[in-house]
Amino acid sequence: MAANSMAAAGTLVARVINGVRIELIERGSGRPLLFLHPGIGIQATAPVLDRLAERARVIAPSHPGFGGSEQPPGFTSIDDLAYFYLRSSR
Q: Considering the entire predicted model, what is its pTM?
């Protein structure tokens, strides 16, 4: 499948996780794969998501404070981000 058609097949959704509205990209099918973006953020059209979605159900959230995701008050460090995801996995 061409990259453009796969990007169109992906879904950009908002979810509330630990009381924070998070924007995320979901694409592909099969076993879930969590993709955590680097400090520059992620675009729904990023080719890496298309490649990963060829073999898995990709879940790519925009970290709190990135893209359309809310930034919680007091959220100031990478430690805050790590604890956010640790609390989300329970």
A: 0.77
